[in-house]
Amino acid sequence: MDAVTLEQVTKRYDSFDAVSSLSFGIKEGSVFGLLGPNGAGKTTTLRMIVHILLPDEGSVRVFGQPLSERAQDLIGYLPEERGLYRRMRVLEVLRFLGALKGLPEAEAERRAIEWLERLGLANRMNDEVNDLSRGMQQKIQFIAAIIHKPPLVILDEPFTGLDPVNAQVVKDVMLELRKDGATIILSTHRMDQVEQMCDSICLMNKGHKILDGDLKAIKKSYGTNTVRVEFVGNPAFIQLPDVVERVNSFGEMVELRLRPGADAQQILRSAVDHRVEIRRFELIEPPLNDIFIEKVSGRDA
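Request: output the structure for the sequence above.
Response:
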């Protein structure tokens, strides 16, 4: 059974379609990436899944159930914007939000303390939310989303405000939730996190679905048409307009998208001609970031 099913879902505001005829299914126990540029309709879609907004057309089902208050209890939701009571103390707000999801207050407090200790915030449990940094508030909101152990966890930009160490901690918790059987919907601009974590994706643009499916299959369909090169020397050797379609440069490491039919060996020959030392040279599937840019900009694969 799919954890979430959308069938021909449309949400409009006056004459503007924020989401248009959107359909997809999310397998139970998977990590699903909902992607797109700003204004694509991602947050509107998430809000329809959690029953904050109702679709004007189409249907949304969660674990086979239509949208309802009971279905909401199956969901943990971390919104992109802050949703905490800023003048409440940390432990107090987590206990309150846990109780709203049906937990006895004592159990909500026990779980809150356990999570605060794990995420390095035990010493701040009696502070007001307003006194915490942005990253700390994000971790509190993350705890609030999972404190009732929901089978469906929806995370809208969960890494916002987090430094690399805390982003890794949150990612580890997400993968642990998935291992325990939870289904996770992840909306983020961090393509590296999507590639590391997601089983399948849906890419939206201007309210429409433009790509969806198994992530590995999507990347495989593009073929190994990208060359990753680490080098020491003059980068002029990659200036091969008949061979290289697009360049992503990271200093002395570049990713080169090949033109159709181009021979990657020409890049090596150019490096030799320019007396460049090649430390790494490999053909790879295109990074998801390249696929994202290509699809959103409308370029053909």
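The longest strand covers residues 2-13.
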